[in-house]
Each structure stands twice: as structure tokens, then as C-alpha cells.
Amino acid sequence: MDSTLNEENSSSRSSKIDDIDDGSQITCFNEIADDVTFHFQIIRLHKQIYAWIGCKSAKLGHLYAAAPTRPNNMVSVTSILGGASDNTGSSISRRLALKTGLNIILACNIPKNSPKLEADAEKMLVKKLISLGYTRPKSEGVSS
Fold it and tell me: What is the mean pLDDT of residues 115-144?
């Protein structure tokens, strides 16, 4: 099964962006890939991003925190609610922290043992983060 996300297999259903007085920004959107609907919410705070990924339901799911660490430019990840360090959300939150350079709080409700769903959801979320300007340029990226 090809894990690439093609534009023809994915479509954006809706998108809403709200700017809050304190400089935060809330973005909500839905995407469909291979007949599966994904729901997303991104809250941009000062030096931090909270993201929620829902698949097939609006449950919170497992909650993870990831933060870039110094001096060796690695990322530390911990499970805050449910799950373990080897679950779906853990790896997504780690990669998001690497791509953005920001602290990441990720709530993830993707079925276990669904690598295609996980890959599709992460690609859609990263694509939106890039379009919102929340990722850092590749030249500033850290080694993983």
C-alpha cells in the first residue's frame, strides 16, 4: 500500500482561523484521505503549539508533550494522558517539535496499528503548519 498522500486522495472540507487578542491563533480544519475523515485543531501560543488530531470521532485521545532540548538539538517526549512513549502521537509530536523548534502538546486519536492513517494525518498537519508559517526554514532544522 502506497503511503504517499496525493492531492486527488485528499480534500479539505473546511477551515477556520480565529485570531485571539493575546496573539494566539486557533485553526480548525477537516481533511479527507482515502475515505477517512480527519479533524484537526491547532492553537498557536507563545513559543508553543497545541494540536489535536481526531480520526472517526471527536475524542481527545492520548496527550503528549515534546520539547526541543539543548545543547544537542534533540527532542524530549513524554506521555501526559494515556498511551506510552511508543504510541502514534509520541512520534508525531517529536517530529513536529523538530520541524517547528517549538514546544508541542499533541492530542492524538488515531487507531492503533494504523501506520497509513498516522502518516496521512501527520502529512496533513505539517502541510497546514507550513501554510500558517509555523515551521522553521529547512536551513534552521535540527538533526534527529
Answer: 83
